[in-house]
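Let us work through a complete example step by step.
Step 1: write down the sequence.
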Amino acid sequence: MKYKTLGNTTIEYSSIVFGGWQSGKEYWVGIDDTETVEAHVAALHAGMTTFDTAEAYGAGHSERILAKAIGARRSEIQIFTKVSWNNLRRDRVIKSCERSLKNLNTDHIDLYQIHWPAGTFGSPVIPIAETMGALADLKAQGKIRAIGVSNFNLTQLKEAAALARVDAIQPCYSLFFRNFEKETLAYCEAEKISVLAYSPLAQGLLTGRFRKGTQFQEGDNRRDNKLFEEPHFDRALSAIEDITPIAEKLHITLGQLALAWLTHRPQTAAIAGARNAAQAISNAAAGDVRLSTQDWEAVDKIGWKVAAPLFDQWMMWNW
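Step 2: predict the structure and record it as tokens.
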């Protein structure tokens, strides 16, 4: 497993991060708590020391699952969690942090992130200065070690960073969905802001397990994913055929290749969810993959054929 340094902190985190969205169950189907606990344990055993969750994932269920799974090994892991878009008033940020600390059974959070900008999904429009002020105070108190943002555009990121140090940003970013590269990536690299890419496997599409005619059950958020709509889906299937020989040459899976493509960048990590132990172990193995410049460029070029038509799309879903 490759390990990286978070922003300009001293926090070391795994380049493959365990994603807790699925653990919350909401907007997913077929998630079993017992298997999820096993996935967390397997991930840690495989070298994945960093776990990303949020209060919004099942109203804290994901956070509680993390605590149940490996809370006793707190000193071995880094916990990243998020305050929801509805809780960005100063008093609500503080209450949310306290609630997350309780859910996680810990006295500190390594990275505390604003999940979505204020005003998202009809939430109250709160001045960013108020939210960042609360986060800065929590950091001064030692309840959080670093501040991050998620789903912020470049303008929003700069506004936040002008008020307090931002050490990480979490964008929707994968080989097939690359709006983040349009302007924000270069800024983050220049300012030493870590990039924590979520949905790095494009919700499973980059594993190669989906075929034409795939149908998702009611309640599965992938029903709204633009990459599973035509003509994007057809382009994606064609691209997967083209990158398969590269994965085979390297003796790795398509998913591991897609994760390694992201983590090849010095400041970028991949947040990968897992339903069970086998998936977690497979994801963790991507942290051992070192791509040559030639292979990285070949994969990048193929993926761009899918990403280009969606380059101006900020959101991967029809939300």
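Step 3: interpret the result. The mean pLDDT is 96.
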